[in-house]
Amino acid sequence: xxxxxxxxxxxxxxxxxxxxxxxxxxxxxxxxxxxxxxxxxxxxxxxxxxxxxxxxxxxxxxxxxxxxxxxxxxxxxxxxxxxxxxxxxxxxxxxxxxxxxxxxxxxxxxxxxxxxxxxxxxxxxxxxxxxxxxxxxxxxxxxxxxxxxxxxxxxxxxxxxxxxxxxxxxxxxxxxxxxxxxxxxxxxxxxxxxxxxxxxxxxxxxxxxxxxxxxxxxxxxxxxxxxxxxxxxxxxxxxxxxxxxxxxxxxxxxxxxxxxxxxxxxxxxxxxxxxxxxxxxxxxxxxxxxxxxxxxxxxxxxxxxxxxxxxxxxxxxxxxxxxxxxxxxxxxxxxxxxxxxxxxxxxxxxxxxxxxxxxxxxxxxxxxxxxxxxxxxxxxxxxxxxxxxxxxxxxxxxxxxxxxxxxxxxxxxxxxxxxxxxxxxxxxxxxxxxxxxxxxxxxxxxxxxxxxxxxxxxxxxxxxxxxxxxxxxxxxxxxxxxxxxxxxxxxxxxxxxxxxxxxxxxxxxxxxxxxxxxxxxxxxxxxxxxxxxxxxxxxxxxxxxxxxxxxxxxxxxxxxxxxxxxxxxxxxxxxxxxxxxxxxxxxxxxxxxxxxxxxxxxxxxxxxxxxxxxxxxxxxxxxxxxxxxxxxxxxxxxxxxxxxxxxxxxxxxxxxxxxxxxxxxxxxxxxxxxxxxxxxxxxxxxxxxxxxxxxxxxxxxxxxxxxxxxxxxxxxxxxxxxxx
Length: 724
Description:
Blueprint lengths: L4 E2 L5 E5 L15 E6 L2 E6 L3 E10 L2 E5 L4 E6 L4 E10 L5 E10 L4 E9 L24 H28 L25 E6 L2 E16 L11 E12 L3 E6 L21 H20 L4 E4 L5 E3 L10 E6 L3 H10 L6 E8 L2 E4 L4 E3 L5 E5 L14 H14 L6 H9 L1 H6 L4 E4 L15 H8 L1 H8 L2 H10 L11 H12 L9 H10 L4 H9 L3 H9 L9 H5 L21 E3 H9 L23 E3 L5 H4 L9 E9 L5 E4 L12 H5 L17 H17 L14 H4 L4
Parallel strand pairs: 14-20, 14-22, 16-21, 17-21
Antiparallel strand pairs: 1-7, 2-6, 3-4, 5-10, 7-10, 8-9, 11-12, 12-13, 12-25, 15-18, 18-19, 23-24, 25-26
Helix pairs in contact: 1-10, 1-11, 2-4, 2-5, 5-12, 10-18, 11-12
């Protein structure tokens, strides 16, 4: 066998008359495997080099390796035995040298092959927990922190470079389909028996919420009799708000988005913001129809002016061309684009006041709009507001008229994120419209658009759960192998060195980082950043204590906390006197049949796992009782709605099967054209302190799970800068 050669600067010619074959594996400096089966040469490595062409010839073989490719020639005209050592593993991430012995045999056939380099290089998160070794303290050595920081930089810089390239390449259909995010998400039952009026989130504004519960069951083959077979978590779903969410049009993220999916920056039309307003109306009208009774849609006195083709001084206003439509549709557009609130969706009247649909919006900016309408505007101000179905059809026709193929479903996600803006006391920021270069769609309506209408009750449940939404977004920056005391070196490269250098209106790259980290949630990532939620997400992540919600993982398929996994292997460590703290936390969280541990039922308020191990003898009985048990786990079973007739409805969700989303292989096939350099900055330990403080505070707060003497004082939170 010839050497495995890379043609770096120019094409390289190889020639061979005799050689040898290593029968098990060969690893180059990039960790390669070589296998010869008849006339087929397959070369794979840990950085994703793959076979592309093969050929068989006789006699002396020569081969030219094109520039930028790898190649090798394998032949075996003579029997030959070879012995030696090969590296098994991934350079930079550990591995071992293994002994091999291989024979090659007399033959007259020769094989050559060449491979292509994949730009992604199989990016995998670093295993930061390996850096801790057997450390059982929160405060790490400086070298350990630096090692974690360098490994994190290497990973996040690659992710960032790929995200920049995806941003410049444009949107593909898989990125814009929100249906991939619907896993076990339940279907909204808006007429609940149990309604609550209370402040919701970070705003004092009252919200109307319905009570529901998530039901979790213990896996049957793991029942030891010491854990409850089922647990229930009550929660609130917002179905009304006392005040609309404010928004404005700005030159923000995705303002340059084009309707052409092949080119993000172009001169095509951009109506993301206007489409999002249309979706807000559709969602609100659908909720009103679902609730019935006293719920109603109505237009207000705020309207947008109409114009004809001879409008003077068009530079002072954004012209929205709706062409020839019914008078009722024209009136709908006039309300949609109005200053303040052009329409209201009242879902309930109470002594505390009226409550509107969560997607109700009010425009605060002075942006001027004029509707270009081929028809006589109606003087009748009492036109009945469009139903959700009619509004959807009007929105579809507008999208087809202007060729907004890639924007239609992204605008839906922008509307779905409106309640999250309200929850965090934020105003939405929608991209200013751009009308140039429109090309109407002549083909039939996209089937995914019709599906989105049918699936609205599922999207509405997700949208009416802002804590689930934010937990999922922040989960893109969580990694299972990052313990609480390494959160700062893990987050610093991406939050401060990559994203910290960009102003708020240039955060498109954040959306594509989310796309890479959470492919099934990609449409929501683009919608979140396009509507101005990006800075709020980064703020929640930067502190080291992002919000967590237990149902976010089963609903969306995006894991986001260590409790989402049962762990692996025996509970006891190799030294049976110890048990990993993350397992102690899990067993403490599980409801016991023999001990009172209800104070731990909600889990820690942060996603990060505690570091180190505890002495088994220091743990509570409801922990030590399971040391010899197989792994226990509670799985999400169903959602319970409380209906007006007093009955309970079980909802197993949109689908119990994982919805295929963007394949990770798509990112593997992207060859990076350029690599950016990021300015390295000084790191502080605030995120690690916050994460560690919160995860241990939860554990010690009830005071029964583990005596503090096993952790505090010399090597514990006191030394780390926290006293618990």
